[in-house]
Amino acid sequence: MTDSEWEQLLNSSPRQAYETLIEQYGNLVYAIVLNKIGKCGSKEDVEDCVSDIMVELLKNAGKFSSGIGSLKSYISTIAKRRAIDAFRQITGKNNMHSDIDDENIIIPPASYDIEEETEKRILNSNLWNTVKSLGEPDSSIIVYQYFYNYKVNEIAKILKMTSNAVQKRSIRARKKIGTILKDGDYYE
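Below the sequence we write its predicted structure tokens.
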């Protein structure tokens, strides 16, 4: 049955159009729902979702027009959206049932020092800003060398320089970084 024939059937006999819809597209809707929630939901969850989708399709059957798109794509889109909604409900519902006395709860260690962590982040930020302030190609050399662990000859190929030039610039850049960090003249 074509999409336009189904539309005509819907106008003349809505009940028969709904039965035809279930016959032709019921398995497609079931497969879509099973794919989305089959692993996290029960068989009843899948069947409930399929039923909800089919009822929604019947309620909104007048919104479909064969001139705009195919019935199959219209049904598939609605099924995917409702199945995703059901997935969110099922997984959210399962996560909310955890008890505070549950042994699986992970508590952060008491030794976690917020001040120390903040100081590390500030130092890292200052170091990064200092490296960026070196200018090109020195900042790229340092980044390739210490963040990506590239060898001098690999960096030389990337930056189209000689290995000797990369090595010398790296030494100078590291000295400059050391001086800036030692003096506390951070570039912020």
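Residues 96-102 have pLDDT under 50 and may be disordered.
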